[in-house]
Amino acid sequence: MAHLTQPLRKLAFPLVLSAVLAAGQATACSFHYYVPEQTAVDWLVEGKDVILGRPSAENEFAFATAKVLRGNAPGEPLPYLVDSVLRKKMARNTEDYVLFARQGDEEWEYVSYVNAAFLSMIEQVEADVSNWDPGYGPKRFAMFAAFLDHSDPTLRRLALREIDKAPYRMLQSIDLNIPNDDLLSQLWTRQGYAFQSIRILLLGLSGEDTAREEIYAFFDRSKDWDWATNLGAFATALIELDGVEGVLRLESVLLSGPRQPLDKLEQAIEALAIHNGIATADLRRAIASALSRMVAMRPETASIVVRQFGKRNDWSQGEALVQVMLDKKVRDPSEQLAIANYIGRAQRASAKMSLEN
Fold first, then answer.
1. With contact defined as beta carbons under 8 Å apart, do 156 and 150 qualify?
2. Model pTM score
3. Mean pLDDT, the chain, integer
4. What b/e readout covers 52-74, taking b as 16+ CB neighbours within 10 angstroms?
5. How many C-beta atoms lie closer than 10 Å to residue 322's C-beta?
6. Which portions of the chain are predicted below pLDDT 70?
7. Cα–Cα distances in Å, from 192 out to 41, 104, 235?
8. Residue 240 DSSP label
9. What pLDDT, on the 0 to 100 scale, is given for residue 90?
10. Residue 93: left (phi > 0), alpha (psi -120 to 50), or beta?
C-alpha cells in the first residue's frame, strides 16, 4: 500500500483531532445482539462465594448449604423457595444439588441444577482452573468443546455458551464432534434461538454441503429484508465455507445492493473484518476488492469499514477509502475525521511494513 502516500498528502484533515473524535465513537457490534450471559463456569471461576445447596432438613421449602466450593456459606437464608416440583425431584435424587453464587455482597444467584454429570464438570473445572489462562483461553475452550456431544443436554447447552465466548481464530481450531443434522435441527426452534449464532458458525466450520444449502437459502430469503438477525454469523460461515467465492456471493446478494440497509451491511462488513485478520492473501485481496467497490458505490459505508476494521487494529483498507475522501463524497464532519484518521493509520502501517521489508 506504499502508493497511498501521495494521495494522502492532499488530505488536509487534522489527524490528531480525528483520533480523539474517533475514539469517542460507538463501536457497534452487530455480530451478537445480546451481552453473553454469565455461565455457570464464570461463576465457578470468578464468584466470591460459591456453594452447593439442598433442601433444608429443618424446612423443606428452604435451601441449606450442603458444600462450600469457594468463600463462605450464606449467613442468612437463601432468597429462594424450594417448590414442590424441585422438592420431589431432589428427594428422588439424593446426590443432586443446586449451584448458588454471588459477587461481593450482592444477592445470591440461582445458577444451575446440579446432577451427577454437572457435578463431574464442576470437579473437572476445580481440578483444571489453576492451569487455565487468565480470561478465556484455549484450555477452557478445549474442555467445553469436548462437551458438545455430551449425553447430558444441560452440559451440551453449557458447552455452546462457553465456546460462543471464543475468538473466531480459536473457534476455527475446534475438532467438531457433532453431526450437522444436530446443528440444523435446532437452528430455527424457539428453544434453540439463544444458540443460533454459534450453531451457524459451527455449520460454517463443518465444511459440509448441508451447511452450504442452509446458508445459501438464508441469503436468498433475507436479501430483500430490512433486517436479518444473525446475518453476521451467516456471512462469517459463508466465507468460511467458500473463501473467495463466498466473498463474491456476499457481494452479489448484499454488498452491491444500492438500497441495502446500513445495519445489514454492518453485519456483513464485520464478518469480512473478522476473516481479513486470519485470511490467506487471496482472500484478503477479494475482501479489499469487494469493499472498494462497495465504498465507491455507497460512500456512506466508509465509516462502517473504519469502525469494523479499526476496532480490530486492521489498517488494510486505506486504499478503499482514499478516493471517497478525495472526491469529498462524505459530508458528515465526524465521519470525515474518523476516515482520515484511519487512512493516516493505514499510511503509517504501510510505511512501517515497507521499512521492515
1. yes
2. 0.88
3. 90
4. bbbbbeeeeeebbeeeebeeeeb
5. 24
6. 1-36, 357
7. 20, 33, 19
8. H
9. 97
10. beta
